[in-house]
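$ fold --in a.seq
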Amino acid sequence: MSLSTIDLIVIGAFVGFYLFVAAYFRKSASKDINNFFLGGRNLPWYIAGTSMVATTFAADTPLAVTELVATNGISGNWLWWNMLVGGMLTTFFFARYWRRANVLTDVEFIHVRYSGAPARFLRLFKSVYMGVFLNSLVIGWVNLALISLLEVFFDLSRTSSLWVTGLAILVVMGYSAISGLLGIVYTDVLQFLTAIAGSFILAFVVLDVPEVGGIAGLKAALPESTFSFLPVIGSDQSATSALVLGLGSFLAYTTIQWWASWYPGNEPGGGGYIAQRMMSAKDEKNAVYSSFLFQIAHYCLRSWPWVIVAVATLVLYPNLTDKRLGYVMAMKDFLPEGVKGLLLVSFLAAYMSTISTQLNWGASYLINDLYRVLKPSAKQKSLVMASRIATILLAGIGLFVTTRIETISSVWQFLMECGAGLGLVLILRWYWWRVNAWSEITASIAPFVGYAIARYVLAWVFPDSFFFIVSFTTVCWILVTYLTPTNDMETLRGFYDRVKPAGNWRVFSSDMQSYVLLYSLICWLAGCGLAYSAMFLIGGIIFNMPNTWQYGVGLAVSLGIFAVFFPRWLKHTNS
């Protein structure tokens, strides 16, 4: 298909805006790498939080939700809704600490927390491992999602779609390299508003299609279990269209995955571009508020328009083989001119916000934690120039990796299992003085060994393989922790004085700040209850579900607890 003149004007206007923003922030980004990667550490919470949401809203996200719903009904979203628990953990246990740490990247934190040659090795290793290897995988799967959209929307070949994606990443690379983080976060705001508006427009348009007949038509045409918000624990998939999880899978997703596995955007203990946004906030309160805004917007608000369209595709395209493409086909088949351009822009906006962050975030590791460590005499001007070169280099590597990835789900599964068990170290390094660089090195490498044993020796698959990898990694790093020397006491003292963490720091203080941990725990639980209740209340209203009032009661109770304890938590966690 081809776009109309008005569609092309809409697309051109947005691209022009991105280039304008890049030019506007160029001078600020050129000052030093603190401005290039953290925007001068002066972002208000609503900008930093919105940027987090925009970054995790990639071109693949609505497609992934469509596939989950088409396969397992609305409850299929529990495969990512469970991550809210880990997100809230970041808000109430780590957001303040990341801002206090006063580091440029979460990898630089290694230098602040650990000491000696092992710390130097770990920092150099993770700068390449995360900045290039993991980062290029994420860029690759986001590119692959855009390629799938272009293939369906415009009937392009894979080669032609790859060329168009290359042009898109060229635009992103340009404004990211010129404007640094400030340009990225402010374009993120427009990109998120555009993307979420496009999602709502498509949801309303699709519901109005005669074959769908609104929410009532969907509920009449599909099994009742399709609209269940909760998975079924059992083994008989034929008895329901909802997500059915065996007990092992249920425990893996709901009680282990959110804290045990490293996953981009949901790193245990914070980290990655989420930590980058919190570290770029004006102060600790802004860091906390930005993280909380992210959890609410990410889970409670933006997923429902995707779910509506996803459910509608079950009626519109019942025989579609590749279920995730139903979302794109609905865009192509039912949107009028002008709106079609806006929806395509919303997908491009989602794509650009993710890619721009990945490029800036990955470059921060290569420059601050590799180049700067190996060449400490480098001047700020040369560091900024190197940052721009690194941004361009990562864009090229990501595009190359795109040509080697077959499916998005294969990358997801690889990341989930090859980071299994690392999460506990990333959490406890803030709260237990004995964790050292060797602990984290072991926890970074052991999952690959465990993965090989589980898959190729024991021939296990998820969830058995996941449980094994987490257990194997945990045993390995705890043994190594006790068999290796402690960190240098001077380094630990510097970290303790800088961050003032609660927990087991008895080498410096017998006070574990139990009241801080208690208030953090209560706020975390109340925050989870608040978010889940709000999410299901909104969904219950949309789909006119019975007993929706129960979610309202849950929301009221959670809000009451939160209102009582959140001010106390803020007071007792002041640095």
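$ fold --in b.seq
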Amino acid sequence: MPRLPAALCAALLALAAPAAAQEAAAPAEAAAPAGLELWPRSTPNPPLPSDEARIDGLLSRMSLSAKVGQILMGEIQAVTPEDLRRYRLGALLNGGGSWPGLNKAATPADWLALADRYYEASMDAAGEGPAIPVLWGTDAVHGHNNVRGATLFPHNIALGAANNPELVRQIGRATAREVVATGIDWTFAPTLAVPQDDRWGRTYEGFSESPDIVARLGEAAVLGLQGAPGEDFLGAGRVLATAKHFIGDGGTANGKDQGDNLADEAELARLHGAGYRSTLRAGVQTVMASFNSWQGRKLHGHHALLTVALKQRMGFDGMVLGDWNGHEQLKVCSVDDCPAALLAGVDMFMAPHDWKALHQSTLRHVKAGRIPMERLDDAVRRVLRVKLRAGLLDAKRPSERPLAGQSGLIGHPEHRALARRAVRESLVLLKNEGGVLPLSPRQRVLVVGQAADRIAVQAGGWSVTWQGDQTDNADFPGATSIWRGIQQAVTAGGGSAEFHGGGAAPLPPADVAILVFGEPPYAEFEGDRGDLDFEAQGGAWYLRAARALHRRGIPVPVPGGDGHLEWHLRAAHTLHERGVPVVSVFLSGRPLHIGEELAHSDALVAAWLPGSEGGGVADLLFAGGDGKPRYDFKGRLPFSWPQDATQPPQNPQTSPYTPRFPLGYGLSYTPPATGP
């Protein structure tokens, strides 16, 4: 997915050196998929003759250069308004860690003003051919997460634990409202991966290892973002959604990011295609091609899957978008020259910084006949069709559209309340020995662990920055950390709460302790692992650097033994020696082996990556004034939990299936009903 800065991207790519990048590109004439029945047609809104006639009129007036411009997307740091006037680019994006003026604290007004400038440039009639508004896309993957002060909802793995389609639909609606308030038209969400190996660093972007859950919640997300076909489809306050990443990114061998999916076609379609069948039915207008390969062929060059399966058989008549320079990974291509991706079925290149050179090379290929005019016109038609359906061709400037400029929508109290509800519904209770939970707030409560008061840790990757790092709590105005939520609940209940950040300082007396620990924030590249052993992350920066160096064959000593990596276990042991019950809250983007943590905890809650509203954790941990739970645990595991760090991937269809906790596991305060 989009990322910044370019220098960092290049360095990370060099370090990671995904083997899949060296695989052969799929030729445009690749054989069609074998199983016609595996790719059912599910498009709900066929093109209207009047719309197609309007598009015909635009195409007839467009110059060749303007047509090529429409199939290119550039990054806002590499595109000026003057560039839009000259090249007629079809779309823009802001990558992760890219903001107006490269200012992390850019206000909603700053975002909207930039959107206006780009729109006005794209509509300047002085350029070649008809003026066509530019689209702006962003990674609003758990709320409008690039914008300071936005509501950050729990990541998809947590929403999979909640497994509530109506909740997900409401989250999509709230996210769309915050996005349109800043003048942006389009989000690159939802992710429809069905992760099968939790070592993959993007596991938390998937709703579940179950294709049924992914299909159900992916459809709900699209309906929330875009509205429902035939009802409020792409009306006021809605944004374009993106089904991504087509296809099989969650099933690569060994969980390798951008790796090779070796499944047969039936499994690819049934398991990894489930979310595409449902989101096409919901009317999704854009599909993003994946970085991964299928049986050795990169998806950005896979004609059989992009064109035959997706467009012809499934009936997708919207736009296929490439991922961040994904075309470059085809052996026959470079970052600035790639007819193969267009011939395979990519309709718009995501070429963040090299779009200008790609424009020139694509123009040459069309003139030389290497790219047929029919294929270029089809790609442009799809881009224009999406813009027309989104109402963009008749829209006013971004600041004059419904909800635009309403900065109060960013982090709106109703959105934050919805996010807090999502936290409550997503928490999974894995252990509650002796019924230690719910806790009475009328006691001395000790909260231990830096993660309890670090919003970046509870938010995870794709939170203000690409990796979710290089931030502090000030970058999340209006958010509530887990510690602050506990403090508020205990104080309101008549008890006292104290925070201890971990380390060597003595632990103060307490009646009960809440231990908060988990993974540091990460996104793609950084997140891949060799095993599923949890490592306490007091030295996360050191471990990330060590892994990067190890990939280059450079040995690095990793601290262990009595070092800081086991501080949370030492704290739990000390507290137990004092007779203090320990409630553990585990923050993670995937299930990890935490055998010792389970053993040292009286209760343990998988809290995933809850986002900006950490107060939702306290809602479930503490009883009300009557001593009864205020809310019950509804969350159930969306992924199977491993027995140990090196256990082979555990999914219900695998044999033997012997997880520590199976898919769907979760305890409740209320015992399940029994029969008569």
